[in-house]
Every structure is written in C-alpha cells, then in structure tokens.
Amino acid sequence: MATYQEFIQQNEDRDGVRCSWNLWPSSRLEATRLVVPVSCLYTPLKERPDLPPVQYEPVLCSRANCKAVLNPLCQVDFRAKIWACNFCFQRNSFPPSYAGISEVNQPAELMPQFSTIEYIVQRGPPTPLIFLYVVDTCLEEEDLQALKESLQMSLSLLPPNALVGLITFGRMIQIHELSCEGIAKSYVFRGTKELTPKQIQEMLGLMKPATSGQQGKPLAPHDAAAASCIFLQPVQAVDMNLTDLLGELQRDPWPVPQGKRPLRSTGIALSIAIGLLEGTFPNTGARVMLFTGGPPTQGPGMVVGDELKTPIRSWHDIQKDNARHLKKATKYYEALANRAAVNGHSVDIYACALDQTGLLEMKCLSNLTGGHIVMGDSFNTSLFKQTFQRVFSKDYNGEFRMAFGGTLEVKTSRELKISGVIGPCVSLNTKGPCVSDNEMGVGGTCQWKICSLTPATTLAMYFEVVNQHNAPVPQGGRGAVQFVTQYQHSNTQRRIRVTTIARNWADAQSQIQHIESSFDQEASAVLMARLGVFRAESEEGPDVLRWLDRQLIRLFMFHLRRSPFLQVFNNSPDESSYYRHHFVRQDLTQSLIMIQPILYSYSFYGPPEPVLLDSSSILPDRILLMDTFFQLVIYHGETIAQWRKAGYQEMAEYENFKQLLQAPLDDAQEILQTRFPMPRYIDTEHGGSQARFLLSKVNPSQTHNNLYAWGQESGAPILTDDVSLQVFMDHLKKLAVSSAA
Amino acid sequence: MSDRFVKPGNQEHGWNDPPQFSYGSQKDSGGPKRNILNKRVHAPQFTGSGAEMPSPSVAMPTPPRGMNPPPMDSITPPSVCPKTPSDGKMETEPSFEDVQEPLYGALNACRHTVKKQICDDVERRLKLFEDMWKSGKLSHLVKHRMHRLSQDLKRKNWDAADEIHRGLMVDHVAEVSQWMVGVKRLIAEARSLNPEQNICTDPGS
C-alpha cells in the first residue's frame, strides 16, 4: 500500500526507526504466530541536519523505576502545569523553568515533529578524546613504510586537543614516552608474560608507591592523568616529535628464520594498551587502534605457532575440532574486550595481510566495543589508506562522525517487553519492568553500552508482546517505545538523543489483513538475518540454515542463505568474521545490499536500468555493475569485451562506445568516494577469472544441469550445483504446506 | 582544480584495489546522499499454480561472433550521474620566495611568545621544505598548493590554510610528511596569536 510505504519512510527519516510490523498484534499468542517478531532497527545517531539540539536538561518522570523522558505522547495540562507520563501514567509537575508554557507556546519536546530530539547537557568538565596507536612492526619494509606514512598523516586528521599515545610491538612490546623535547624513551615488556592490570599500572608508574605494609593504590584520577601524561599527550603538543618517532620506526629487529613466522605478541600489546587506559582514563572516550600484519604467534592470545608448515585454522579445522589455540585465544580476547567495554573504551583492528591475522579470535574486541574492523591485503593499498582516512571523516557541520561512551536505555509501555538487542554493544545488566525473560540477542537488560558509534551504527531490537489473549486492546490503542541514548560527542559535549515511537495495537483475529499490510519486508529481512547471524556465531551452522528455511521471507532469505554471513564455504574464518562484523552494525539500506546485491545494466539500447540478480541478466552486449557492499564489480559482456580489446573506444567515430564504457565507472564513483569501509573494485569481463565475483552472486537459473531445457540461447549458464531460486521456492512451498497439515 | 584527482589503486599489492581519490574529492558535499544505484527489480511472484521460470530480461539478438563493430550512432547512453568536469589547465609554477615569505613572516611573529625549541624545530622543517623544493623533489601539485597555503597564511585565513595542509598530508604524504608537521604547527601557533582573525573563507563551511 502506498500509504504504508510513505508512513514507513517518514518514520525512518524522522526517527531512524524501521519496524518489522507497523501495527502490533495486541495479544501475546497472536504475536508469536507471526514468525517475524515485533522488532525494529534503530539508528541512534542518525544524521539529522534539520534537527538543532536544545541546550537544556530533559524533563524526566518522577517515578523512581520509570524516569521516562517527556515526549509528544504525554498528556499535558497546560493550566495546572502538569504532565502525565505515557509509560507509567504518573502525574508530574513541570519544573519552574517551564512556567511560561501553553498550548500555543509548547516546548520542542512536546511537538510531534520532535519525536526525536537531542539535548546538550553539562556533566562535569569536558574530557579530551584519546587515540592510542598499537603498531605491529613485523611487517615487510614497504608495508611498514606505507603504514608509517598513514599514521603520520592521521596526526593531521585528529581532533586538535585529542590525546595520543604509541605502543609498538613485535617479539617485545614498547610503550613510548611522548614528550615535546629531548630524547625519546620507552618502556619495554616481554611478549610472553601475562600481566595483571595492576602490575601493568605499577610498572608504568601509574600507582602510588606502596607504604610499609600497604598495597600500592591506584592514583586519584587527576594524579593518574598527570602521571599518564608521559604516555598520552595532546597531539598539538607532540605532533612534531611523534612524526619523527614514527618516521624512525624500524622493523622488528628479531630475525625470522626460514620456514618460520615472526614472533608477534599481540595479546600482551593489547593488554598493556587496555591496562594503560583503564588505569588513567576510565569512562572517557578512547580508541585503541591496532595495526597488524599477521597473526599473534607468541604469548597469551596466540592464534598459531611460528612454524609456517602449520597453517592457521580453517573452517574445516574448526569443524573437526582441530584448532589448538582457538578456544583459549578467544577467551583471552573476550576478557580484554569486556574490560575495555566496562571502561567505555573501544578497540579498532586494522588487519592487512595476504593470509589470515586472527580476526576470528580477536573480533570481540571490536564487536563488543563498537570499534572498526578493516581488512586488507597490505597497508600499501588504497583500500587501507582511504578507509583509514574515512575513520576521521567529518559531517556537514565539519564535525567528526565518531561518538563515544554511548549508553542506550529502552523503555516500553506495559504491553511490551524487551527481549534483547543485536549490534555492537554490551549489556549493562540493568533489570527493570520492561525486561523480558525470553532473550533474543543481548538480553536480560534494558540498558546497553556502545563505547564507540557513528551516524550509521544501527541496532536491532526485539520485543515481546505480553498482553494476554482475549485481554481487551489497551486504552489509547497504541504501544510505545522510548530510546534514550547518552553519549560524548566528538567535540567533547555530552548529549542525550531521545526517540519516542508509537504504533497502534490491532486485534489479530479481526484485523489480520491490516496487520499484514503493515509488514515491512525489508526491515524484517534484516532483522531476521541478524538473528540468523547471531545464532550462527553461537551455535552450529547447519541448524541455523534449517531455522532460516522456516522463516518464509522468500527472496531475501534465498540470497541470505547463500551469503557469506551464513555460508562459510569459500571464505576463511577471518573473512566470515569480517563480513558478519559489518552486517550487524550497518543501517538498513547497506544491510540489504549485503544480503541481496544491486545489479545495474548498461547498454546502447537505453538508460542504465536495474536488472534481476540472475544469470539471465548476463548478456554479451551489456555492461553490468554489481554492488555487494564489500565489492563493486564492473563486468563487460563478451561482445563489449571484444570491442574494448579491439580498441574501438580510442576511435573518434565510436565516441559513444567510449561513453558506454565510462558510464558505470562514473556511477560507481559516489559509492567509492563515501563508503566505509572502502569496497574492493573489480573490473572484469566474460571469461575473466575475476568474473567469479559476479557469477557466484547471481541466481543460477541456468546451470550446466538445465541449460538444454532452454529454448533459446540467452544469458550465461553458471557452473554450479547450487540450487536456483525456482528450486528453492518449490522446496519451501512443500515445507510450508507439510508443516501446516 | 589541482586538488581533485583520482589515481588507480595499487594492483601489485592488493587484489582489486579500488582507485585512490584525492582529499578534495572525498569530502562530503553535504545534504542527503543521492544514492543513485539503489533500485532493485522485484522477482516475479511465485504463486501456488504453475511454477514458471522467470522470463529473461529484454532479449536482444546477440551480435554474430565475427565481431561487428559497435553501433556508431548518435545514441549516446547517459550515465545515471552527470560527469564531473575535467581539470583546468595548469598554472605557471610559483616561485619559492613567494611561498617562503609568509611562512617565515609567521615564524618570526611567533618567536616572541613560543618556546625557542619549538620555533627552531619549525625552522628546521621549513629548511627541509626549501631543500626539497630546490632539489626538484617536490611535485608541481605540492608546490601550487603550498603557494595557496602561504597566501592564506598571509591573509590570516587559518581554517583555509589548515585545510590545505590536511589535503597535502592525505594526498602527498610521501613527499611532505617530514616537514609538513612544522607548517601545521606554524599555522596553529600563528592562529593562537591572532584569535580574533578566525574569518573562515573555507568553502566547506
């Protein structure tokens, strides 16, 4: 229905929310029959150029276990200056500063167009942002040089009053004193010995000296800040020295014998970084940025030994329980990740190598804290350099697109409870009346912490309808959810973004068609997909695929089933971790591209047009542009390729052919210029080895198995045993009919 | 403009490395993204009756294998987005003295208030810049952009100068990294001496 599409779009534009259902079934029983739960995607910091923040504190409900924020759904008595909380119905008096409000003079937060509103609040002195570089020096010379240059460049991109620090590692770990003058000193740690946070802080001089009979105590925050100043300094004070220091970094001096890997003590390096921040700046926005060119091979957190003849674990190894270090290393990094998350610090991983680097084990460091994972072949590539630059990109206001120290609290009206969240966050274990016992994703809480977030960060939220069957539709007819996100803006201001949404209840027995027409297929596909990925990460693969087949969302599910998120065949464990990392945090549009890539066809016969992601779209006289989010593929059909090879584009009378070749390149530009992370760029043609990127994504409606069933030769057959969409749908239909019988 | 360009990616070191865009071409032009490549074709509905194969898209006759040339017609297929205009013609190379004068001017102004060690460090880097210029180690683009930066410095357009320094660091890091941080510091120190002169002529703001 056109109206529901508009409704959905307007709500997304205003609130950053997409709900699976836009009419909610009023009874628990009916809700569970819907297969897709009542759920939504929420982008807390969606860019709203038209929404000026207000500079006062939000007004809260006075009931101790409610504290909902005043919003457009609240009933207001302007004369008595009283408002009724729409969540708990408590009557509250307005604060004295609201004495002048009236029907014609309403505060912004009561107006329907401000269902999403942002407050700037004072919460103590502003604290600087911190960037702690943790750099692997076991790289090839050229690679290290490129990385050094990128790091030097980044010093010019950092916010000017940010604090910056440098830890380098290989076999040993060095934490560098940064000063404005004199000789550069560093503290050296062995890469094999695990240290407790207290030991690290002691060794770095961040503890008060122990008096007789007494343990060393941590310094008070301002003393600790003073002591840490040797390791974490304002970039504007040390940029010249740090530039020189980076320029002089050498490869790890320990020689690597033939047949061996370099000894890389990533585990201890991260432990020192996290320990340093823990001891000096807890609860301040900080990013640990790990740059690594290979897997950890020494000390706690090692992923593979140093013998090259022992390859790093593959999915096959994992399934056969043949991955020696996997459990221990994962546990080690999970413990570090949780410590970082508790302190509000995020960890980025920039992993550039031709072989795997241990993302499977280390991914929790970024997934739990909201940090980035960037995966490339070498630091000397434009993919790494430009993706890294975009970490520091600025918005329309010239402000950085990164925010820190986020906490999200969700409140629901009493007919709903929260089952959980899937996204780059951790639980704050906050119990309350809104918390459901049935967990989906990260549940058992109504508050989550997101240590680092961007305007694209999107969380999936799952709800449970708790109203009993046959209970009357609740008074007012609408269920409501409020999202309150507190965070530190990149300009160090503290802000609170409040979004309050409502949807009508509907009686499923009499209004089932209305409920069905309010279904948002796109949002539901992504919500179910995230559930699938969450389960795949915590349970066995094949069970997830069977579960997915029972969720009947047709086309998207077909592509999801074959996607690298669930189908691990053909990807390394690190690659799977990388794709999943991005899938569970991107917004709806990007997530859909990842599930079902977009395909455009260019020809002489008309303007560029979207075409079916199907082998029948591959024709000799077409150029195809495919966007999978991680790759941009430009595929030249057989005839086009022959013309290109013959050089017609160089001849003046074939100018239109030249333009045809250029058209997809121009269209790809906008994506290439803005997407984070930067996609790979594949220019290929019929018969080219890189054509496999396209061929593996399209629906193989014509394979070598059924080619001769076709009357005419059109489209390119795909050599695969993968089922086609048609076969898949037939199978699903049989399944649906048999389970209902 | 000399600060908008695209280079190919590094195919030697990276599989399918994307092209490299200059700093100037990557900045957000503001406003909602055009998101031009965002349409899908919906698959035909699979109803209970008759499992039909999806019909192939417009079946054009394939050209004979003997490779006829492409159509030479006036049909020029437009791309979805308009092409960006090509670069303007190159100006004549600036003289080093022109560039040097505002830089040393700013440095001398700072000597009264800023620590000697920092000023000496900045000067050392300006000398390195001079050496590299005079021995031909700096590219045309870098020289032009440094000329514009020094003009902005002279006119106390701190934000604009800062933005040029950032663009140079991003686009030409190998050439400039050793000495550019000195220029960066110079801009910062000169700015703090003249806080009221913060008039932005930066087109981005």
TrEMBL record, chain A:
GO-annotated molecular function: GTPase activator activity; zinc ion binding
GO biological process: COPII-coated vesicle cargo loading; intracellular protein transport
Key words, A-Z: Cytoplasm, Cytoplasmic vesicle, Endoplasmic reticulum, ER-Golgi transport, Membrane, Metal-binding, Protein transport, Transport, Zinc
Location (main, coarse): membrane
Domain called Zinc finger Sec23/Sec24-type: residue spans: 58-98
Sec23/Sec24 helical domain ranges (all copies): 555-592
Localization (cell): Cytoplasmic vesicle, COPII-coated vesicle membrane; Endoplasmic reticulum membrane; Cytoplasm, Cytosol
Domain Gelsolin-like intervals: 608-694
Residue ranges constituting the Sec23/Sec24 trunk domain according to the UniProt record: 126-392
Keyword Signal: no
Keyword Coiled coil in record: no
Membrane topology of this protein: Peripheral membrane protein
Pfam families linked: Gelsolin (PF00626), Sec23_BS (PF08033), Sec23_helical (PF04815), Sec23_trunk (PF04811), zf-Sec23_Sec24 (PF04810)
Domain of life the protein comes from: Eukaryota
InterPro entries: ADF-H/Gelsolin-like_dom_sf, Beta-sandwich_Sec23_24, Gelsolin-like_dom, Gelsolin-like_dom_sf, Sec23, Sec23/24_helical_dom, Sec23/24_helical_dom_sf, Sec23/24_trunk_dom
Function of the molecule: Component of the coat protein complex II (COPII) which promotes the formation of transport vesicles from the endoplasmic reticulum (ER). The coat has two main functions, the physical deformation of the endoplasmic reticulum membrane into vesicles and the selection of cargo molecules for their transport to the Golgi complex.
Family: Belongs to the SEC23/SEC24 family. SEC23 subfamily.
Protein name as catalogued: Protein transport protein SEC23
TrEMBL record, chain B:
Keyword Ribonucleoprotein: yes
Residue span of region Disordered: 1-93
Protein keywords: Activator, Apoptosis, Cytoplasm, Nucleus, Phosphoprotein, Receptor, Ribonucleoprotein, Transcription, Transcription regulation
GO molecular function terms listed in the Swiss-Prot or TrEMBL record: transcription coactivator activity
Gene Ontology biological process: apoptotic process; regulation of transcription by RNA polymerase II
Cellular location(s): Cytoplasm; Nucleus
Pro residues bias locations: 61-72
Domain SRA1/Sec31, chain residue ranges per copy: 61-197
Gene Ontology cellular component list: cytoplasm; nucleus; ribonucleoprotein complex
Key word Transferase present: no
Family statement: Belongs to the SRA1 family.
Function: Functional RNA which acts as a transcriptional coactivator that selectively enhances steroid receptor-mediated transactivation ligand-independently through a mechanism involving the modulating N-terminal domain (AF-1) of steroid receptors. Also mediates transcriptional coactivation of steroid receptors ligand-dependently through the steroid-binding domain (AF-2). Enhances cellular proliferation and differentiation and promotes apoptosis in vivo. May play a role in tumorigenesis.
Self-association state and partner proteins as the record states: SRA1 RNA exists in a ribonucleoprotein complex containing NCOA1. The RNA also forms a complex with PUS1 and RARG in the nucleus. Interacts with AR.
PANTHER family with a match to the protein in the record: STEROID RECEPTOR RNA ACTIVATOR 1 (PTHR18834:SF2)
Protein name: Steroid receptor RNA activator 1
